[in-house]
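Figure 2 data, in text form.
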Amino acid sequence: MILRATAGLLGLAGLTVAALYVGLAHAELRVTTGPPGSALHRLIAAFAAANARLHPRVRLLPVEEPSLAENARALEAGRVDLAVIRSDLPPPANGQTVAVLRRDVVAVVLPPHSPVTHLSQLAGRAVAIPAGPFQADDARLLALLLDYVGVPGTRVETLFLDPPALGRAIRDQRAAAIFAVGPIGPGQAVDAVAAVARASRGTPTLLAFDEGEAIHRRHPGLETIEVPVGAFRGQPAVPAASVDSLVVTYRLVVGRSMLDIVAAAVARSVFTARGMLTAATPFADQIEAPDLDEKAPLLPVHPGVAAYLNNGDQSFFDTSQNYLYLGGIGLSLAGSALALAVSHGHRRRVARERRLVKRLVALADQAGSADRAGLEALTRDLRRLVGAALRDETVTEGGAAALTGTAIAHAREAIQDRLGALDRGEIRSGRPGDRPGAGP
């Protein structure tokens, strides 16, 4: 009975898979934003709004954390499903990349004719850092780079200044350089170059990181880049010649436990919404797909995102269909296996019924020639068979119960008839054929 009920449930599940298809592709995901007031904060807020129009079945719930470092910890602790992180900060242990949101150049902007030609020469000087949501992260990065070239962070004074004050600090020689982390485009690095140019009335220069590849090997979150001529100013060009530098990446990451189907849907929304987001923030046009061929990446690409990028514009429903197809195969196999089990169980039940009925018929036949001792033994056998039949549910249901009851009644009646004949003296001994008065 239980097997038949389970088989019926599986069959019902298989029939309703198509109905569940539309409702399956649904998720509600918590995503961290950048610090309040930052461009990343605006980008994620705009992305959540755009995603609600593009993909209403994947709802994004922005969650504010005080810093990018806290974003990573929130993902690692499972408080959120997606997080915006910066690659030079400690990454979440469970993080996998969905998209690269932005690449920011690490720029050390120097005034004209600066004696500083190497990062180590900043020892004993002051460096200005643009004040803002990421100033603590930028100061940490500066300390990391100074440590790499053997300069203790305590030997370099850091000044957190608003944009208007940056140029004055250079002009008044309170700062030897500006350390800015920003994109090639509007942002901190461009603003720092403009501030130095106005204050010095000359052409700023960028400090080169000739050890960039070695720094990358020690700190994988820092990647190398060749900053092209005029990247931060066109006339006169800054830099005047291409310069080797470093970049940090801002990434949208998810936990590795996220289903491939959901991660693929998020990736599709990110890249589909890129054009719409540009109106909300100019940084949206820098969104790019992660490198699938990168060896030993700090934050590997999520398998669902990799499948989406390899297979082209595959919709969330297309991916759902794959899951449903596999699920349908699983249900079909499970149903077939259960049907075999039910069939095998049915054959065993029928065999038990036949053995019981044959034993009862044989017992009735034996009663016709048994003496009193034999009848007592047959009575004990009958009781044992009746008890076994009552304990076996398969022979106490439906037609099996009727057939078994008939066989039991037949055996009991045969024993009673033989016993009655012995009591009436119709049989002189236990041997068949012995009649009263019969002689040799």
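Caption note: The radius of gyration is 42 Å.
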